[in-house]
Design brief:
Distance between the termini: 33 Å
Largest sheet: 5 strands, parallel
Strand content: 5-15%
Order of helices and strands: EHEHEHEHEHHHHH
Radius of gyration: 17 Å
Number of strands: 5
Oligomer: single chain
Strand order of the largest sheet: 2-1-3-4-5
Shape: elongated
Helix content: 40-55%
Structural class: alpha/beta
Number of helices: 9
Length: 199
């Protein structure tokens, strides 16, 4: 199952020409994409509009792209982020992956490869998971999911969040229902695929 017609993409790159090229090319394919030259504009839109994938240039002009990535990831820990770089083998790109990027791609951006990467996340190869924009997590559910991926059990999470183990189990079931996962193993694999890592 290809997801090109349904996925919503945000693209953050301080290079106007790069943004314009990517925007025109993906719009011709009927793909919903919004481009940003500044981090602050991207952050403002993330608060207002549903998005399934964020693509960010690690250079990001005068702003440290890795710092921008980490800031966005801290605010939206479950949002899949794909990093792009003119030098994907650099330490910066490796650090981004370690910090939770689902992938990084070389510039100039190969749009076919970009869409293949997104299809692996949301299409048949990704198990047909729900789009990020379709999932409405509470702040507590995000916190619990991060603890689960970090290897903590219900009792440990209950102690840290001052809640009962039964309440944590209820949250866990709600998280699995929202993501469409059938068991805990699927939940962990999906969370890691979305770039959710223990801080």
């Amino acid at each position: 199952m290809m997801v090109e017609s349904t996925v919503n993409i945000f693209y953050l790159d301080s290079d106007f020409d790069s943004c314009d090229t990517v925007n025109r090319s993906l719009e011709k394919r009927g793909i919903s994409i919004t481009c940003f030259l500044k981090v602050k504009d991207c952050l403002a839109s993330l608060q207002e509009w549903p998005v399934d994938v964020l693509v960010i240039d690690l250079k990001e002009g005068s702003c440290d792209g890795l710092a921008a990535f980490r800031k966005i990831k801290s605010l939206y820990p479950l949002l899949p982020i794909i990093c792009v770089s003119g030098n994907p083998g650099t330490h910066q790109a490796v650090q981004a992956v370690k910090a939770g990027a689902v992938d990084y791609l070389e510039k100039p951006l190969n749009l076919d490869l970009l869409m293949k990467t997104i299809d692996k996340l949301y299409g048949a190869e990704g198990g047909g998971i729900k789009m990020f924009s379709e999932v409405n997590f509470t702040s507590m559910e995000i916190k619990i999911l991060k603890m689960l991926v970090g290897g903590e059990n219900n009792q440990e999470i209950a102690q840290k969040t001052c809640r009962s183990s039964r309440t944590i189990e209820d949250h866990r079931r709600n998280i699995m229902d929202k993501l469409g996962t059938k068991n805990f193993a699927e939940l962990v694999r999906l969370a890691l695929k979305m770039g959710l890592t223990e801080e």
